[in-house]
Amino acid sequence: MEIEKALEHLEEIHNQVHRSEFYRGYRSILIGATGLVALAAALLQPRFVNPSQPLTFVYFWVAVAMANFLLPISQILFHYFAHESGLERRKTRLALGQFLPCLLAGVFLTFAVCKTDTAFVVFLPGFWAMLFGMGVYASKPYLPGAVHWMAAFFFLGGVGLLALVPSHESLSPWGMGLVFGLGLLMGAGILYFNLERKKP
């Protein structure tokens, strides 16, 4: 009987320690806002993108991505310099470092495609989504386990966008809008229900 109580107590301590290892710098409200921005961008794409000029598609979505990057990173950097302890700063660097390689790969891939042949632009939405999904999965050690569903959504969304390449529908507004909009909203829900609503 005492052994069972000790094991239950040990499991409870393990769960508390495990939850305390999660990185809490990503806030659901800001991640959700980035998802809404992606959906709004899909509505605005026809006004800013010329279908006969593929580079306008790249410029538009790169601008959207930069805006969406600034939303959470500004909050993360503010807390990093203003509030976090040395241990918390280390966790921030580790968590962001997990995602950074996929982000840089997306930047270099985009640059290479634009400089090589604009005919390859139709492949970018699929590659962007798959790289983002890989970045989310790489960050899994510091986030709730449910983020693997978010990673899978982005990866499969990227596969779907690549399947649309022959018809050029991968450049349609709702290709990027739905994959990134819904994927980021899913991530916001995961953060809220697994980290923010539950106290460590």
Tags for this entry?
200 residues; mainly alpha; 7 helices
Give an overview of the whole structure:
The protein is mostly helical. The chain has 7 helices and no strands. It has helices spanning 2-20, 28-48, 54-82, 86-116, 124-138, 147-163, 173-196. Helix 5 runs antiparallel to helix 6.
Quick description:
This protein is mainly alpha-helical. The protein has helices at 2-20, 28-48, 54-82, 86-116, 124-138, 147-163, 173-196. The chain has one domain (48-195).
Number of domains: 1
Query: Given the helix and strand composition, which structural class is it?
Result: mainly alpha
Shape: elongated
- Main sheet characteristics: none
What is the succession of H and E elements? HHHHHHH
Helix content: over 70%
Distance between the termini: 28 Å
Give the percentage of residues in beta strands.
under 5%
Query: Which value, in Å, is the CA radius of gyration?
Result: 19 Å
Helix count?
Answer: 7
What's the mean pLDDT score? 90
